[in-house]
Specification:
The complex is a heterodimer of chains A (about 550) and B (about 80). Chain A has about 550 residues and is an alpha/beta fold. Chain A contains 17 helices and 27 strands. Chain A folds into 2 domains: about 350 residues, 3-Layer(aba) Sandwich (Rossmann fold), CATH 3.40.50.12780; about 100 residues, ANL, C-terminal domain (GMP Synthetase, Chain A, domain 3), CATH 3.30.300. Chain A is about 30% helix and about 25% strand. The radius of gyration of chain A is 23 Å and the shape is globular. The chains are: A alpha/beta (about 550), B mainly alpha (about 80).
Chain lengths: ~550, ~80
């Protein structure tokens, strides 16, 4: 592992320490770490000194509540300043810190908190309702902290502001080894429930290096990563990478609004912007007159992550922003950017770009044979990069299955051209990538079967102009039941509220039967071929043939 | 039941939260879970609940709850304080 002596001092790998105390020790206490813009126009500024003090307070709160190294703690909040100070405080206290999307429904929360045996969670009063519905099923959950309660609600539903008032502002971060567990992000697979991708504090090495070498962040930059902290990009590049370099960030808690976003880019003099293809495609649909009103002379680079960037978006970026948009590729499991376009490397529109220095991708056949240029196969990575995940938390066997023939199997298929550029071709499993979020067909199929009247379900991802892929659900009805607009709406709301809005099907197709193979597995490939009107290929395994 | 009361019930159902109490000036930033994807659910539920249909152009003009209320009232012919 290549260490960085400026970053790792005296063997201290602690992410919370590096992003706060170390920056203060470098003389950046008074430097603005974050401009936090609220959904209703509230604006606050946090210096690195503020982050250091408040994260230390939070670490002390957690110690007072008898949390210790390795305990699992979740943050379930929209983008507000408490997310950042509590995350860094939890890192300092060496807690395994799970980050959740604030639009998760009760079932999605239960799956994640239950699987991880979470001991605590930080949230706010309006989200408490969702937690109280599932609380009885979470015997390990000892405490719920509320960011917006001025008084403790019960013995175990506590006011964070009150606890913070009573906490010391100094915290001596324990010496934290490279292999100490840190961040936990749940991700969807094609089978079973979502799995918790567990990272270690060593990830900071590559998050720091890619923030420098790929995003090309420099000391005086003003950086905006629009990703939610429930997503790996939101922690790797919305928190760890930039703050480990002492770079000022903008965080915006409001929803997408083209004019508001461009106002932020202009007013704060953003120099580097990291966003997502879906957001860029939404911007492309706006009246170009909006953009003409804003001047962005300081904007140096624009990056994108989540799904492949269509050539049209790159063209739009050149026309409207006067900039190339660099597509980056990584996964929750990789923790940091692996293959990427970047300034200085000519863009081949639609390509993933080339590997980050030191990262060893390869295109590998199912039998482990290395494939030559221009041959499509499994996109694999040579294990051992600094931010490689340490495990699927409490699912070691599934973790082991991700490594075959000495390679980490990403689950993506791709090819490499003769000039060394990689080209994404698709997933080798059934996982759906909708607006950059991975959705498990299994989760949606299970939620559909909870609806009265639905006998069977099969879920696929189909191409979509805005979302990259949309969720399409096939259902069969029980005898005497029929699909109608009432049920359509009920099903949408059920999935939105139980799983998440991202998982909600955009289309429903009613069938007489769902194709299954002889062992009862849903043949999603056939559903997809049927939807797209393409050749279904080999159907010899079908149950009813 | 007034239009806003009926609309409030729809919000409570769509966002699975019986504590929601809508006001005309409220936007997506004021309701937990009101994002671009759940907005589709909301519009479908409003159209079903009020037996109306919005055009794409009309949908683009809805910036807050008040706009949505006015859109509903223009279709149903009801006023904010009138029973719907």
């Amino acid at each position: 592992m290549n260490t960085n002596p400026e970053l790792i001092q005296n063997g201290q790998y602690n992410i919370g320490h590096i992003c706060t105390r170390l920056q203060c020790d470098r003389g950046l206490s008074a430097k603005i770490a974050m401009h936090c813009l609220g959904a209703h126009g509230e604006r606050t500024q946090w210096t690195f000194g503020d982050l250091e003090r408040e994260s230390s307070r939070f670490a002390n709160v957690m110690q007072t509540l008898e949390f210790s190294m390795g305990d699992v703690f979740f943050i379930f909040l929209p983008k507000i300043p408490d997310v950042f100070s509590s995350f860094l405080g939890a890192m300092k206290a060496q807690l395994i810190t799970g980050m959740l999307f604030s639009n998760f429904g009760g079932e999605a929360l239960l799956d994640r908190l239950g699987d991880a045996k979470a001991k605590g969670i930080l949230t706010r009063k309006s989200y408490l309702r969702k937690l109280l519905h599932i609380r009885e099923k979470l015997p390990d959950l000892k405490v719920i902290l509320l960011v917006d309660a001025s008084e403790h609600q019960t013995e175990d539903i506590l006011s964070l502001p009150l606890l913070m008032q009573q906490a010391e502002t100094e915290f001596k971060t324990p010496l934290t080894s490279a292999e100490t567990p840190s961040v936990l992000h749940y991700t969807s697979g094609s089978t079973g429930k979502p799995k918790g991708v567990l990272h270690c504090h060593r990830s900071v090495l590559l998050q720091n290096r890619t923030a420098r070498e790929v995003l090309q962040l420099q000391t005086d930059d003003i950086f905006w990563c629009t990703a939610d902290h429930g997503w790996v990009t939101g922690t790797s590049y919305g928190i760890i990478g930039p703050w480990s370099l002492g770079v000022t960030q903008v965080h915006f808690g409001g929803a997408y609004a083209a004019e508001e976003w461009f106002k932020i880019l202009e007013e704060y003099g953003l120099t580097v912007w990291y966003t997502a293809p879906t957001a860029l495609r939404m911007l492309m649909r706006e009246d170009p007159a909006i953009f003409a009103r804003f001047k962005l002379p300081k904007l140096r680079h624009v990056f994108s992550v989540g799904e492949p960037l269509n050539p049209e978006v790159i063209k739009w970026g050149r026309a409207v922003l006067g900039k190339d948009i660099y597509d980056t590729w990584f996964q929750t499991e990789t923790g940091a950017i692996m293959i990427t376009n970047r300034p200085g490397l000519p863009i081949k529109p639609g390509s993933m770009g080339k590997p980050v220095t030191g990262i060893g991708p390869a295109i590998v056949a199912d039998d482990g044979t290395l494939l030559p240029d221009n041959k499509q196969g499994n996109l694999c990575l040579k294990p051992g990069w600094e931010s490689m995940f340490a495990s699927y938390y409490r699912h070691e066997e599934v973790y082991r299955q991700k490594f075959k023939h000495g390679w980490y199997m990403t689950g993506d298929t791709a090819y490499r051209d003769a000039e060394g550029y990689y080209w994404f071709m698709g997933r080798s499993d059934d996982v759906i990538n909708t607006a950059g979020h991975l959705v498990s067909p299994f989760e949606v199929e299970s939620a559909l079967l909870e609806m009265e009247g639905i006998a069977e379900s099969g879920v696929i991802g189909a191409p979509d102009e805005l979302l990259w892929e949309k969720v399409v659900a096939f259902v069969t009805m029980k005898k005497g039941c029929e699909w109608n607009s009432d049920l359509d709406l009920k099903v949408r709301l059920h999935i939105s509220n139980r799983v998440s809005t991202m998982a909600t099907p955009k289309e429903f197709v009613v069938l007489e039967s769902i194709p299954k193979n002889k062992s009862g597995k849903i043949m999603r490939r056939l559903l997809k071929a049927r939807y797209l009107g393409t050749d279904a290929g080999d159907v010899s395994m079908l149950d009813d043939i | 039941m007034t239009t806003i009361e009926k609309l409030n019930g729809i919000f409570q159902t769509v966002f699975d939260n019986d504590e929601i109490d809508i006001r005309p000036e409220m936007t997506a930033n004021d309701v937990d879970g009101w994002d671009s994807l759940s907005h589709v659910n909301l519009i479908l539920a409003v159209e079903k609940g009020f037996q109306i249909r919005f055009t794409e152009k009309e949908l683009l003009t809805f910036k807050n709850v008040g706009d949505l209320l006015r859109g509903i009232e223009s279709k149903t012919g009801s006023g904010g304080s009138q029973p719907s």
